[in-house]
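User: Can you predict the 3D structure of GNAT family N-acetyltransferase? Sequence below.
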Amino acid sequence: MSGLPVLTSDRLTLRQVRVSDAEALFEILSDDALMTWWAFGPHRSVEETRSMLEPVAGEDASWRSWAITRTGEDVALGWVNAHQRRANVSEIGYILARPAWGQGIAREAVGMVLDQLFLTEGQRRVFADTDPDNRFSIGLLQKLGFQLEGHLRAEWETHIGVRDTLLFGLLRDEWLAVRQADRAAAPSA
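Assistant: Sure. Here are the predicted structure tokens for GNAT family N-acetyltransferase:
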């Protein structure tokens, strides 16, 4: 298996996406509403999902793909992907099963990958792009401290037509400030 590090917290474990995650991830990738903002349309078969996972589950994958699981369980709830675009700059992407929404799981999982990229690997910048109408993704990025940096018109040809994209960026020092504010706001044990 890949040298992708396993990332853990009290409630989540992020590990390399595997082809065997196809059944669990098909539930996400076949959700018409959830897939609205993706470049490709909803999957129609587990085989389609399996074929998509084969290249990202390999050691030579250009995107590093962490499956999000609950600690002690091994069922993929979604993933966080990272792709190094140039020295010390990565792009991230993520998806989470609808039943796991509203529990802070996406924020925690993406935060764990940001810690890996900024604190462990020493990257200086991480960016994401999202559809201007994807309010949930925009909200997550803003909660994580990402700043809107650009609006690219007619950037993507998708299954719902030609779409604009918003670019959000986060610098290492900004992430450190978010982490510090989160720690200060956390209730004392």
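The mean pLDDT is 94. The first strand starts at residue 7 and ends at 8.
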